Amino acid sequence: MSKIIKTLTIAGSDSSGGAGIQADLKTFEEYGTYGFSALTTIVTMDPDNSWHHSVYPVDAALVAEQLKTIFAGGPVDAMKTGMLGSVEIVRVAEKAIKDNHQNNVVIDPVMVCKGEDEVLNPDSADAIRDLLLPLATVVTPNLFEAGVLSGLGKLTTIEDMKKASRRIHELGAKNVVVKGGKALDGEKAIDVFFDGSEFTVLESTKIEPAYNHGAGCTFAAAITGGLANGLPVSEAVAKAKDFVSAAIRSGYQFNEYVGPVFHGGYRLEK
Ligand code: PXL
To answer: Is residue 69 very low, low, confident or very high in pLDDT (cuts 50, 70, 90)?
Structure first.
């Protein structure tokens, strides 16, 4: 066996399997990497209450202990963060990244689950902006998160997305992908990539019906897998877009509320 390529996710558990650490570890495996995980929250969804999400954060000290275990083997080849759950956990993630001189850091600034539109925890959103964006190789906000991080509010056009990317880059993230996904009007699913000097508009055909629960986590995990494998950022992002489109095409209806992506879709289509 040649060198093991290591990836890490600091994120929440989605028991329904499409998002969170479940998405990340499955995606890391698809990229041929060895995945580590530090669990930050446990999320449950209630079928008796319209699939309402409840988020239970893990004690921040326990997140720190998990990271101590993981980094006992030295830095990983690339890592990502997902749902962090509290300001204290954001601080723990920041400290682990700094103390271990970890590079190739993908920050997915998770603020809400799909279908829920309140910022889970506004203080954590501020902490992600102030403490983690300066450490980010790539940050992957959706439209809503990009509006919050940039302070621009509701984004509705590609021009808005570009403006938000520029603001978010100024906050310290080296590369920014604003995921319009299917949220913008029109036939295409559109994301904007900004590397600090140039914008690239990434387009794909909107997929209907969209079984897309977990698409955001899977996209960020795929970028992480690409970086771990040595791809330049722009190539890691472009491949991740193909990877997540295939995962959506292979998604399935789990119940009346949710249809997750299938993380093995890209492999099956090859
Ligand atoms: O898709 C956002 C998300 C991230 N992380 C976890 C989740 C969700 C949404 O359900 O459960 C753990």
So the answer is: very high
Mutation test of ligand 1: which of 113, 124, 257, 261 has the most ligand atoms closer than 8 Å to its C-beta?
113
In this predicted structure, what is the pLDDT of residue 209?
85
Q: Which of 243, 248, 267, 247 is nearest to 207 (CA)?
A: 248
Fold of 6-269: UDP-N-acetylmuramoyl-L-alanine:D-glutamate ligase (3.40.1190)
* DSSP string over 25-63: HHHHHHTT-EEEEEEEEEEEEETTTTTEEEEEEPPHHHH
Q: Considering the entire predicted model, what is its pTM?
A: 0.97
Other CB atoms within a 10 A radius of the CB of residue 226 amount to 25
Both tokens assigned to 122: 């506004």
Query: What's the gap in Å between 198 CA and the centre of ligand 1?
Result: 30
Q: Where are the domains of the chain?
A: 6-269
